Each structure stands twice: as C-alpha cells, then as structure tokens.
Amino acid sequence: MKVRLALTRMLPVWAVLAALLLGMVLVALAGANPVSAYRELMRGAFADLFGFATTLVKTTPLLFAGLGVAVALRAGLFNIGAEGQIYLGGLAAALVGLYVHGLPAILHIPLAMLAAFAGGGVWAFLPALLKVSRGVNEVITTLLMNYVGIYLVSFIVGGPLIEPGAPYPYTRPLDPATNLPLLIPATDAHVGILIALGLALLLHVLFARTTLGFQLRAVGANPSAAAYAGVHVNRTLILAMVMGGGLAGLGGASEVMGLKHRLFEGFSPGYGYDAVVVAFLSNGQPLGAVAMAFFFGALRSGANIMQRSVGIPVAIVFAIQGLAVLFLAASLVVQRRSRAREPRQPWGAQHIDVAKPAAEAVKHEPL
Amino acid sequence: MSLFENALLISYLTAAVRLTTPIGLAAMGGVLSERSGVFNIALEGMMLTGSFAAVLGAHYLGDPWLGLVAAMGAGAMVGLLLACLSVTLGANQIVSGVAINIVAFGITTFLARALLRPAGIEQVPSFQPLVIPYLSQLPLIGPVVFAQGPLVYALFLLAPILTLFLFWTPWGLALRATGDHPRAVDTAGVNVGLVRYCAVTASGVLAGMAGAFLSLGHLNLFTENMSAGRGFIALAAVIFGKWHPLGALTAAFLFGAADAFQLLIQTYNLGIPYQLPVMLPYVLALLALAGVVGRSTAPAAGGIPYRVEEA
Fold it and tell me: Of A239, A287, B115, B127, which has the highest C-beta tally within 10 A?
C-alpha cells in the first residue's frame, strides 16, 4: 500500500522521466550522443554560478505564471492564456515605470507590480466573463487572447512607446526605482524569484486553510454541489480566473523590472505555455509548481548551453514538456482505474463540462 | 470599369477564399470530432504536424500530392493518439489536446532545425492553381473561385458532402447521436468508442490537409509554428457555425476574409502598423464567440469520456 502511494504520488516525476527518455531518442535522431547532450544540459543549468543564476531567472516567470494557471485549475478552469497575461502584466508594469517618477523603490516596485496584476487580471477577466455569462469555452478564448495580447504589446512597443533610434522595438529604460534588486551579484538573478516563492507559500496556505481555498476546490470538483452548498459559483470562477491572470501578469512584471528594465517586443519566449505544463504536472499544487517550475527553468537554461556545445535545438524542451503532460494524462487514468475510485486531481480524468457554463450546470440541479 | 472587373476586389476575394481553406478544412475536422463528443483542441497541433509532414513528403517523394498523403497520414496518427487518450483511456480531453499541441510544436520545431535545415530542405514542390475551363471565365466568381489550388476545391466539396453524411445517412446519425447521447447509442448496439475513434481520426486527416495547404499551397515551405493559431480559430468557426459543416464553412470564410483583409492592408502599406490588422482574425473570432453563441447547440455529451461499466 505504501509502495503504491509512493508510486502514485510520484506520477508526475515518472512522467517527466519518461519524457526525458523519449527526448534522448529525439537527440539521437538529430545525430548527437544523448548522454553527452544531457550532460551538457545539466552542466549548463547547474555547474557554475552563472548557469544556476540563469536557471533562477528562467524559473521566475514559469513559477508566477504556473501559479496563475494553477489557481484557475483549482476552480476547474483551464487558463491557457498565461502567455497573453504575461504580456499585459509586463506592459502595465512598464507603463508605471515609464510615466510615474519620484517614488522611492519601496513604493514604486509594489505599485508597478499591482498594475501588472491588474493588467494580467483584465486579460483573464474577459474570458472569465464570457465563460460565466455566455458559456463560451475558456480554453479557446484564453488562447485567442494570447495572440491579441502579444500583438498589442508589439504594436505599443513598436509604435507609441518605442525608444527613438532603437534598432529593435523596445521602450526607454524604466525609472530605476522599479528595478528589482539583484539576488546574486554580477549575474542576472533578481529577487523576483523570492516574490514568486512567497506567493507560492501564500497560495499553499490559501488553498489548504481558508474558506476561499475550499470554495475554489468545491467549485472545481462539482459546481452544482458547490452552488447547493451556498457558494457563489460564478463569482468564484471569475475570481479564480482574475487571480490567475494577475499572477501571470506578475510574471511579466518581474521579467520587465528584473531583467531588461525596458519593455521589449516579444519579451516572453512562450513562458506562458511552459506555465500550463508546470500547473498540469504539479496538479495545481503551489509547492509542486515550485519544483516543476525549477525543473523546467533548469531545462530552459541548460538547453541553451546544450544547443551551443552539442548543436541540439532548444526546441527539444517543448517536446519534452508536452510528452511529460501526455504521459501524466495517460497515467492518471491508469492510476484511477487501478484504485477504482475518483481521482483526487482536479483535472485527472473526471468529467469537465467544456461546452456549458457552470451556471448552466447549476440550473439543471433538480433541487 | 465595373465592380466585377475591379482588380483589387478580385485579388482580395481570391485571397479571402484561399485563406478560408486551412481554417475551413480544420473546422470540418472539428465538426466531426465534436459532433461525436470529443472536444478537439488539438486541431492546431494536428495542422502543424500536417504542414511538417507535407514538406517532408513533397521533398522526398518529389510530388505535392504525395506530400498531401503524408500530411493526411500524419494527421491521422495524431488523431489516433488523441482518440487513444480520450476514448480508450478516458483522459481529460483538454489536457490531452493541449499536451498534443505542445508536443507537435516542440517536435516539428526541433526536427525543422535538426533535420530540414541541415539537409537544406526549403522550397518544395507545391500545388499549382487548377484553372477550371469555362467556369473560370465567369465575371468575378471565375477568377475568385475557379482558379484556385486543389485543396480549395476539396474544402468546397467536403462541406456539402459532410453535411449530407452527417444529416442524411445512418452513419451520420450514429455519429451525432454518439455526441449527444452515447448511452442510447450504446444500447442500440452501436460501438461508441469505434465511432469516436473514426471521427477523431478523420478530424486528424482533415486538419492534416489544412496543414498541407499551409506548407504546399500557400508558402511552399515549412516555417516554425506556421499554423499560428489557425487551429484555434477553426474551433471558433465550429462553434460560430453551430457544429454544422456549412455553418462552419461560412464562419471560416468570415475569418479567412479577415485574414485576407489584414494581408491587403499590409500589402498596400497604408501606414497602419502591421500589428493592428494582424490581430483582426483573432479579435473577430473572439467577438463571434462572445456575440452569437447559442447556449444549447453544443453536442450534449461533448468532452465526456464514455464508459460502458458506468451504467
């Protein structure tokens, strides 16, 4: 029994390992030695201070946005729009950094972060509203919002906000008071990772110990039952999405304020999609998301070194990520069958009504 | 010069019909899959896989038609994967679909850089317009509709054929019933799993065709992530078209026309930053979803795995 519990708890780890193994096949297919490729990857991610700092830098947006996807997942919603929310958060933070001056860092940084939370939150609010009021599937709307958000930021950075004479679309530098302090001197690692870790702890407590956390899970598990128990289902769904968008927006802010100190066109190379993987693999658990974000952050950081030394394209990271989710999705079902009861996972294999809004499900409640 | 001979209008509408094709073909796949009860967010990944396979096939077999076959085969494989996950295993369809999209993006990008680029595969044999005699002489309609590539005709033939299939044949009835009330279908002796397998695999074939159109009928090469969200727009077309092949085709034309409009604006360089028109198809798809979605038109059992022992 204990062995089985250990096995099932470790399912995401097994899924990742299986994906890494299959990744070795891809490496071999590309004509490189898989073992030495992975050795280079590990070396790049951890061997020296610079590599480790890069790993932390890549972990930060993955964790922020991963938490954002996780919050929605708790409430049974699929927030696949973290990428767009990252962009809007970065934009909002940059606006505060460009147009607000004279504040001390202790006020300026929180103000910019707050703006980023609002920016990402607004981007998630629209799909949430459509979901609740018109029953539009949030998967499609959040995905479409990604494209709009990316092009919107590209337009603003390439037009109204572009620094005159810039060879590539980026803004003037932000007010230095918004710069996040460095965590490791002489590297890129900034304190954004600490903020993200703090938020992960906060969410862990919120999920486990508070009424709101319970409401989120109740709505995610069974909206009709939650409504019957007196939970405002629609309000909870909107709150979960907006919180999620806000958290992803913070990821954008930390990129802008911690790394380049300007807003760049295309500043997120798909962190929002990594975040979906992080949240899926950690099953919506904030502490699990920390581990997964760190792992995939290391993969992203190490992959750059691997590309340079062994010539294996960085894109292999995406293949490994997707495969890990595929393996986990499949294995959760096997686990559920072997235990013959409903999974604890909010998204394991249960019925999630994708076509109808939760509000409608509530209406069908006979009592 | 009359309206019907207006070169600008003709070139715009020709582009609109052309850009309708990938969205429309994928949307046909979406209709089949969702009518059978399987929510298919993986259309995007199927399309991208199709684009890649089409280029490989056209290059190594030296013929765009064989590239198309390769794309359809690759799409079918991805469809089988989704069916295996969502039908046989009963895994969450959204998680499976999202995962397939990420894998498809990762593997095609990886292989494009690791295989296509080192092998120097760029331009491949591609589809040429098939000008239909006499009909192409018609004013306006002729050049717009009857001087297109073969996959464009395929779409305009497929939409009515699928409509006939879905609404006028016993197989179509079984497929629709499977999406609405699988238990009843099961009781009537139809194999729910088999119907869904066929529908999802067929949707993979159609999305693969859509992908082949992008790389063999539109650009003649593979570029990373070249589906660019068209699979998601196709899903919006499915919903906007109320899960009906002709409705989905109409919706796809709307989005294709928006896509052509943004190209037109870029081509004529009116001083509008390119990002604004490029957003247009996505914004239009969002507006369509927000505005016109009927609440009760979705297949009732969509997204729900069916298990016999549940009775």
Answer: B127
User: What is the pLDDT averaged over residues B15-41?
Assistant: 95
Inter-chain touch B286–A155, beta carbons under 8 Å:
no
The whole-angstrom separation of Cα B196 and Cα B80 is 10
Tell me if residue B169 falls in helix, strand or coil.
coil
| Beta carbons within 10 angstroms of residue A340's beta carbon | 6
What radius of gyration do chain A's Cα atoms show?
21
Taking alpha carbons only, the member of B105, B100, B89 closest to residue A323 is B100
Kindly determine whether residue A318 and residue B99, on different chains, have CB atoms separated by under 8 Å: no
Which residues in chain A have Cβ-Cβ distances shorter than 8 Å to B273?
155, 158-159
- Tell whether A318 is within 8 A of chain B (Cβ): yes
A340: contact with B, CB 8 A cutoff: no
Give the separation between CA A348 and CA A335, rounded to whole angstroms: 10
Q: Are the C-beta atoms of B39 and B303 separated by less than 8 Å?
A: yes
User: Any chain B CB within 8 A of the CB of A351?
Assistant: yes
Chain A interface test: which of B34, B36, B43, B92 (most A C-beta within 10 Å): B92
Q: How far is B132 from chain A (nearest CA, A)?
A: 37
Structural domain for A18, as ranges = 2-363
Q: Domain residue spans in chain B?
A: 13-123+146-292
ipTM of the complex: 0.91
Q: Domains in chain A: how many in total?
A: 1
The reply to whether residue B89 touches residue A312, judged by beta carbons under 8 angstroms, is no
Q: By the CB < 8 Å criterion, does A269 face chain B?
A: no
Q: What CATH number did the domain enclosing A6 receive?
A: 1.10.3470
| CATH no. for B13-123+146-292 | 1.10.3470.10
Instruction: Say which residue, A346 or A356, is predicted with more confidence.
Output: A346
A23-38 pLDDT tens trace: 999 999 888 899 999 9
How many residues are there in chain A?
367
- Please tell me what DSSP assigns to residue A315: T
Query: Alpha-carbon Rg of chain B, whole angstroms?
Result: 20
Q: B204: exposed, middle or buried (C-beta count within 10 Å: 0-12, 13-18, 19+)?
A: buried
